[in-house]
Specification:
The complex is a heterodimer of chains A (about 120) and B (about 110). Chain A has no helices and eleven strands. In chain B, a hairpin with a 3-residue loop joins strand 5 and strand 6. Classes of the chains: A mainly beta (about 120), B mainly beta (about 110). Chains A and B meet through strand 5 and strand 10 of A and strand 4, strand 5 and strand 10 of B.
Chain lengths: ~120, ~110
């Protein structure tokens, strides 16, 4: 049974940084692309970034390019998102999800809330 | 970027009703269209992938159709547990984009 658990969210001031983590279990983590998706309060879903199974490829939404960095540790079955230079508009629940070969998201974590406010 | 537009944004229904939600892409995406269900306070859940394939464990009252730019999610007989917001997502090209959501209420 696939299980994804995010952590690392919290309240941070504009310009601050956080490192979000996603612990994976129940599947062969190193075989899958992984992705981060966020949802601002009361809003829709926004894809943020993905990373390939062996970290060879990464891709980012324009809204976070240059500020966010996705990474993974296959030995630890963990996915990360380093979020820097945070802005108020980055306030959202951040979900990690397993990305299939056809680029849909078949398992999601419960999310971690990032609040950017002074 | 490919824009995804859903309609309606919200709909009020009754148990047992047939519910149809549409999703339109700003350019052709073949069958690279997926549907998710999100209940309040919960993570989204995959319902349909590749326009018409039912994800394992999803009730057969859910179905999807379409190709190119126009797609439909149908709930054949609405159940109380189907009250949720539904999102379409294109997986044709990055950035992966979602529709704005369709909220189904009773």
């Amino acid at each position: 049974q696939v299980h994804l658990v995010e952590s690392g969210g919290g309240l941070v001031k504009p310009g601050g940084s956080l490192r979000l983590s996603c612990a994976a279990s129940g599947f062969s983590f190193s075989d899958y692309y992984m992705t981060w998706i966020r949802q601002a309060p009361g809003k829709g879903l926004e894809w943020v970034s993905y990373i390939s199974s062996s970290s060879t490829y990464t891709n980012y939404a324009d809204s976070v390019k240059g500020r966010f960095t996705i990474s993974r540790d296959n030995a630890q079955n963990s996915l990360y998102l380093q979020v820097n230079s945070l802005r108020a508009e980055d306030t959202a629940v951040y979900y990690c999800a397993r990305q299939t070969g056809d680029n849909y998201f078949d398992s999601w974590g419960q999310g971690t809330l990032v609040t950017v406010s002074s | 970027d490919i824009q995804m537009t859903q309609s309606p944004s919200s709909l009020s229904t009754s148990v047992g009703d047939r519910v149809t939600i549409t999703c339109r892409a700003s350019q052709s995406i073949a069958s690279y269209l997926n549907w998710y269900q999100q209940k309040p306070g919960k993570a989204p859940k995959l319902l349909i992938y590749a326009a018409s394939s039912l994800q394992s464990g999803v009730p057969s009252r859910f179905s999807g159709s379409g190709s190119g730019t126009d797609f439909t999610l149908t709930i054949s007989s609405l159940q109380p547990e189907d009250i949720a917001t539904y999102y379409c997502q294109q997986s044709y090209s990055t950035p992966w984009t979602f529709g704005q959501g369709s909220k189904v209420e009773i």
